[in-house]
## 1
Amino acid sequence: METITAAGARRAALAAQGFGQPRPSGVVNRGHLARLMERLKLLQLDSVNVAVRAHYMPVFSRLGAYPMSLLDEAAWAHSARRPRMLVEYWAHEASLLPVADWPLLFSGAKRHGWWRHYRELVEDNPGLAEAVLTAVKEVGPVGAGTLEDMVGGAGRRPRGGSWWGRTEVKRICEFLFGTGQLTTGTRVNFQRLYDLPERVLPPEVLAAPPVDAGEAARRLIGNAAAALGVATEPELRDYYRLGPDICRAAVGELVDAGELEAVAVRGWNAPAYRRPGARMPRAVSACALLCPFDPLIWERARTERLFGFRYRIEIYTPAHKREHGYYVFPFLLDDALVARVDLKTDRVANVLRVPGAFAEPEVAVPRVAAELAAELRLMAGWLDLDDVVVGERGDLVAPLAVALAARSAG
């Protein structure tokens, strides 16, 4: 078993995640997005829209300013010239993934999702489930609210307001989505509009022969290993939220087949794995803001082990107890996480606000401030905002304000 340094593992992870090469110099196109998705495998969806929705940001972090319509078309539109590239499903969490991987998640390899709690409702109301499917077939893509109106009086709120207060129709839609009988046709203002898979997915995906759970687990773990660079078995498992037993079996089988190799990482207390031939560059030159749902930092214990960076999202922390802010972006510079930046898009004033910015210990603050200022300007322009406005919290706000002013003057 080869032994590698923790720094080598960190650089391998960054290269696997698309940070080992420069951003495109010209207009970002569908080919760039396809190659990035081949690396990342997943983009997490999240409803928080404080700065920018979560699925857009990892593409910006790696490719720079790009038209968001590029991702929208890849995920929620289809034409003969531009077939749908991505589809929604519960993978890590709610995610966009390549259409070819969709069948793998219905093989039995993945743990049952939270929608299993709705099975009893469906079994008790088979006519309601059939009515929902019929309505979607007639008018889809369609939202749950419209479906509630279409199927009549079945939209009763659950007693006691459980299940997040969802109506029976909404819960049945989520069950049908979770079991693959419905998918997302498109989204409007981030609202999911349900449609039938046969109207969304390419025929070759729907016609593909079933994949057994073991084979699907091996393919998903192979995807995770490619996306993570170097990872422990629990980290590989977490990428698609697979069950522990089937994941351990898949890792062992991939090692036996020569498709994964075990490595020891100095300072790690568990074995790690990588794909044979995985890149481990001698240096990484990167500059990127990472949203809280970026796949590089999904797994917080891994983030701390790779970067020495303890990170927690503080959205649900009372304001007076927050350490760094409401929606904090780690800032990646070269191969280190060097700062934390609280960000908010203010559409009324048309500015990107930085309520707080905090440097990590022992970083070169002038360089961090200058590089961060450039990245914030780029992000503001990408979001069609006029300016970047710095607040008062954190030891980095003063040098950042100076660096932003210098860029404006220049």
## 2
Amino acid sequence: MPSSLISVLARHGEDVTVPCLPVNSYELATLAEVFGRLPDPRRIRGRRYRLGSLLGLCLVAVLGGAKSLAQIARFAADATAEVHDQLGLARATPNASTLGRLLARLDGDTVDDAVGAWLARRATDPVDEPDRLTGLAVDGKTVRGSRTDGHAVHLLAAALHGSQTVIAQRQVAAKSNEIPAFAPLLEHLDLRGVVVTADAMHTQREHAHHIIAAGGHYLLVVKGNQKKLHKQIKRLPWNEIPLLGRTTTTGHGRREIRRLKVCTIAPGLRFPHAIQAIEIKRRRVNRATRKAQTKTVYAITSLTPEQADPARLAELVQDHWSVESLHHVRDVTYGEDASRIRTGTAPRLMATLRNLAIGLMRQAGWDNIAAAADHYRSRPDHATALLKITH
């Protein structure tokens, strides 16, 4: 019978704080089953390995810190017979070219939708605060090492605040930008009880209509790309509005102070469904040089004061910016920008595997992804156990 995430962690994560997860999901598919149900692009004749086994192998290797197809193949060659059995692999193991051809031919949207849905159903925690709105950050990242013909793969992702779990991803078309990919990214997500946060590129009227029509809320940054809206927000009587929040953080060699003001918007604002405007003044001080820099950021939201007080608005804004650390992990721990995988959908699928590995680690309670990778590299049986969890 499939085991739960909590029972898996109890066996190999005694020093890790386990998050509270839903316990009524025994009927849900395991991750191995999700892999096995994906459409296989290969011809039936000549298939030597099952699709689910190959994807499971790739994930287990990535959980252990594998950065390339060669490292995944090397993990497969060095793995014990027990790990091979757990993955459903024959004693003969696939080489890097076999894995590369498979990843290059898989449908990226189908894989991302299946994996994202599986992660989303396990990332929510309805126990502690059932009425709390969930933050969902929409942000893009370029896989720089995938550049061919002058174009690198650019991915737009939706990640849950806090856990940095990617539950949706779309590839941006070459010679385009993120804007047309926004609606397809959110198309299959249930946005009820969700606050979509995004940078100024996505402060678009069509995006706002799409989010509200899907039952969600938005919190969007306003900059010069919406000149008239930016002027309207900037001209609000901020000097007469009292300070409603002040937070101080330290890290990365700097100290940052954020001051927040909120203003309920009068009718006539040039943006649909906007109810509150936000002004955030950030003062950053370099702790080594003592040089200070001050920046003012404006945002708008469809949330009412009753749905989100100033403290919650400040938290949503900060959590959106903190999702950038997901990109940092992919580049530093997994060397994504240095990867030279370039064929077909393989660059995107490797990014999907990295997102999935990081999401599993975060849901399992790991704060340090490098330490988690070290753990799973030395104990691959713990990584294979994650393929069998249902909740």
## 3
Amino acid sequence: MTTQTTTRVATDPRLDDAFLQDFAVLSEIGRTPAGGVERQAATAEDGQSRRWLADWLTRRGFTVRYDRIGNQFGLVELVPGAPYVLVGSHMDSQPRGGRFDGAYGVLAAAHACERLREHYSVSGGAVYNLAVVNWFNEEGSRFKPSMQGSGVFTGKIALDDALATRDPAGITVAEALSELGMLGEEDVFALTDPSSAQRQVASYAEIHIEQGRELDKADLTMGIVPSTWAANKYEIGVVGVQGHTGATAMEDRQDALYAAARIVVALREIADRYGDELHTSCGQLNVIPNSPVVVAREVHMHLDLRSSSDELLERADQDLSRVFAEVEVTADVKIEKRFAHRWKGHVYPSAGVALAEDVLADLGLAHLKVRTRAGHDSTNMKDHVPTVMLFIPSVDGVSHAEHEYTTDEDMVTGVNVLTEVVARMAEGAI
């Protein structure tokens, strides 16, 4: 790859202000009282944000399409018949989540591609087309697993399985997307079948808040992601026997909630044994029948193990299996693994990392390489096409919470860097 020494689009305070104004408008959709957002996948609020994005794109000459899992694309054809550089993230949120997580990356992608659409319409020079993407259900809060839209897109999750996934109320993904009118009837791109007549993908870029403290601690604006932590996620069923909290003798109880509590504590103890190279959690716990005078007969749990080492994660997984066996005996319950979703730790393509480093050097911006502990849609995309993943700081490392915050200055810098990265990708640098 040859190093480019000039930028494609000059920074312009008016463009920066326009981005910040649009971000403020987007942040009002699903706004919570404490300043976060609630836009879980395929809810009315998610649909409202998607319609807002579709209108924004359409008014600027983009063609908006939805694929068969509800991924939303804004297409700009610069070179008829050529593959596309995809740029984006997700706009769905966690319950009472932050307004920056995901949504910043989608809007940054839209502004970057709009700047480049105008640039190339005058100057030419692109060899690839551009597409903004808003991935469906990255968060995995309403429908599990997470990164569902990009998972189907990359062939890692079966389409029929994803469409049949139900939320806690029994509504399927297919039903929810159909209600919004955002379930496409065909694929917009062919990623896993290069011989297809559908549009092809040349490369992918994503920018996201870090959701960690490394950039904030280092007082740096830009991070480049060279690799990702591995993760194992499990949906567990703990099955006991319902009983009376007063009348049932302690030695006769098969208390599913007691068993679940032992598992939660054991998860933390496993993490403590391995230090900061292993993160564990129980992020969701549903108790049945959840009555104050009933010994729980069943508990559904969502467990999460993450590590920088595939080998360490495997050892932790074995530790957890031993915990399950011990709890089954001590609490007299049955533990069922209902679901597992996992990915190994992998490096991002070296060409994408090098391209990002060249851009930041040319722009005179210092950076930090930050291995991502969180999952992102780029985690799926990097296994198929050249991929660039960029971070901007999260103040105090806060994320998935209403007080998540990133400064205007850092957001604007990120959009300008992303614009230059995508320009070089559009011109065939990778």
